[in-house]
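Quick log. Single chain, no ligands specified.
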Amino acid sequence: MVSAKAGLQEKSLHERIRNDVERRIVTGEWPPGHRIPFEHEITRQYDCSRMTVNKALGELVQRGLIERRRRLGTFVKQPQVQSAVLEIHDIEREVHALGLVYGYRLDKRLLRTADEKDRLAMELPFGAPVVELTCTHFAGGVPFCLEERVINIGAVPESEFADFSEIGPGTWLLKMVPWSAAEHRISAVAIDRRSAAALDIPAGAACLVIQRRTWHGSEYITHVQVTYPGERHTLVAQFSPSQKT
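-> predicted structure:
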């Protein structure tokens, strides 16, 4: 028969293990993808039963902090972002909200004239100057999303001279240019090889693509496509019931 004192010690120990693992994850000591010690290793470290360790880790699995991979071990899970469908998000803030270190890389910057796709997306006249940008955003050192953007230089003249090597174009635009309206198009796609290489995922993997164009008054500012690995992103919408029945 287990005494009440022993039962309390076991409970306290499982909470300590859970809290220790959670602290290492939240502080970034164990980043996403890190394999945490095997259960038998934790058992030796804390001088406890395997059941106690299993219970502590099981609670962290339920909370979405870790995941168990059969025959491989237990790993820190890549956080899943929840974004409101009708908001324009600053990607850097999204990453910081997860408690992860943000990283950014400018992959391409090109000054050119509007092509047919641009003119359809932003109703630009033939020959209108635009800047085309491709960027990769990182969370905790792992590719977070791929941003492919075209900015209408006629609407944002400063964009012609901004190099975007240190700051993402989305963040830059939110600081520099007012916008009055936006349109989102959301789709699920099997990612192509080029985008898969940028995001370090297999070609054909399921991804979430958000296409957005914004404008101020009657003038289009930008058109952007942001591609997220599907397993790392969730879209959320909040709404109220209509007064009509």
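The longest strand covers residues 102-113.
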